[in-house]
Amino acid sequence: MTAMTASYHRQVKFVQGQPRGDGGPFDRAEWFELLAESGQEPLVVSAGDAAMALTRANGRIEPLRNWYSFIWRPLTNDVAALTAIVDGLKAQSHRVTLWPLPDEDGTASALEAAFRDTGWSVLREQCDHNHVLEVGGRSFDQYWETRPGRMRTTLKRKAKKVDVNLLTQFDNDAWADYEAVYADSWKPEEGDPAFLHAFAKAEGAAGRLRLATAFHDGAPVAAQFWTVENGTAYIHKLAHLDAHKALSAGTTLSAALFRHVIDEDRVNLIDFGTGNDRYKRDWMEIDRPRYRLDCLDPRQPAAWLPLLKRKLRSLPGLASHRAAG
């Protein structure tokens, strides 16, 4: 048993100073503060200088996150602290479900080991995809030469049909154009416009925002919202008007942003978030898995029925029957 003990807090201020040095927006205290302000009740579990930003939902403990979060991970790389936090979670719930976890940095594997070593029953599954581009010192032109021929042809034919406005600071009119395009696009209804507006405004004030709009005959027809931080460009939101699909304004806008972050911001990585859409594979070169850990404490009666259901689902005969059905 580790000498460290876990402590529990209902305020995200306890993650101040904790975020990882290699992190992006989803590791920062400001991100968790926005989540708390949007109505989620934080459960911050800390040990030593480490912390996990969690919440209670659906009868279990889950990450403090929302649909805008590309990843969730503990704010620590310290094995002893991680073990203390995970062990302490038994006093808070019979079940902990964590996602979407990266593993290129060892997060999913380290968490899985910590939960197993402290007596939890752990189910690990891939829950999503994360498409990224490692720039590798290339210029935009060098990168563009490697894209599918149809993409390069489309840009060559359509680029002059729209005008691109790319901003590196927040602008109310530009944000209104983004919201108008998104509202009339093929995208589903925006989950939390106020949250996204607050995040974009804060990123603009910090100099991390990249907000671009494509115009045709003076009207916005496509818009994208990116941020740049610690050598990584994050593609948060993109949309175009279906009525102007023939303009391929989204391709023109993406190319302009890729050129900007590669040639001017000099990023090392471009991150297209979660999802396995075909168009992401056209722009990116690496598909990184995202994982879910579902952890049950077998010593707690509340975990017994979920454990039984998990066991039944793993039986070969039942699995074959479900597949046939």
Automatic annotation (TrEMBL):
<protein>
    <recommendedName>
        <fullName>BioF2-like acetyltransferase domain-containing protein</fullName>
    </recommendedName>
</protein>
<feature type="domain" description="BioF2-like acetyltransferase">
    <location>
        <begin position="151"/>
        <end position="281"/>
    </location>
</feature>
<dbReference type="InterPro" id="IPR016181">
    <property type="entry name" value="Acyl_CoA_acyltransferase"/>
</dbReference>
<dbReference type="Pfam" id="PF13480">
    <property type="entry name" value="Acetyltransf_6"/>
</dbReference>
<dbReference type="InterPro" id="IPR038740">
    <property type="entry name" value="BioF2-like_GNAT_dom"/>
</dbReference>
